[in-house]
Amino acid sequence: MAQIKDLGVEPFLDALARQSATPGGGSAAAIIGAMGAALVSMVCNLTIGKKKYVEVEGEMKDVLAKAEALRHRLTGMIQADVKAFDSVMAAYGLPKETDADKAKRETAIQAALKQATDVPLACCQAAREVIDLALAASEKGNLNVISDAGVAVLAAYAALRSGALNVYTNAKMITDKTFVDAKLKVLEGLLTGAEGATEKAYGIVKGKLS
């Protein structure tokens, strides 16, 4: 079976729209974040090597390298989200005839839910990094493509908040409160300041287009 990341745009959208839980919002969040990272890379690629931007070339090369690494990380999360969800469904489908069955099933469910929390949290972490890179691109990128830095930061913010919804969804079903509290603390840290950074980048871009 082909990896979701290898599908064309239309087949991927068809897969999202069909009467199936996967791919779903988690995979969509990952691809949205990856698109944000790709747009940051584009702005960098069209800034590097331009005489007008020689003073920021070193910084843009650094931003480019980080954006590309994040793009590949986020792309990998598309399939990871599907696998995590499928693991949860498989755990719920385990036998529950005896007390031993029930205990084994509950253990499997909890382990799968933890995995299904970690995957979107990783997506949130990557998306948050893309927001910061998009801000740098909006501040110092090529003016001819500066609007793309704005699209990049909005995509990354959408990915962050979308991934957060999946973290919340799975966390509420986990009985290990120490695990839940730790993950939610990380998530809240990622969300803190993200809106401000996004609005700052958007404002910079809009100002340069006015």
Structure description:
It contains seven helices and no strands. The chain is elongated and about 75 Å long.
Principal-axes shape call:
elongated
Q: What is the terminal separation in angstroms?
A: 48 Å
Low-pLDDT stretches are none
**What letter string, H or E per element, gives the SSE order?**
HHHHHHH
The value of Rg in angstroms is: 20 Å
**Which quaternary structure do these chains form?**
single chain
Number of strands: 0
Fraction of residues in β-strands? under 5%
Helix fraction, binned, reads over 70%
Largest sheet, in brief, is: none
Keywords for this structure?
210 residues, mainly alpha, 7 helices
Summarize this, please?
The chain is mostly helical and about 210 residues long. Helices cover about 80% and strands about 0% of the residues.
List the helices and strands and how they pair.
Layout: H1 9-17, H2 25-45, H3 57-92, H4 99-140, H5 146-171, H6 177-191, H7 194-209
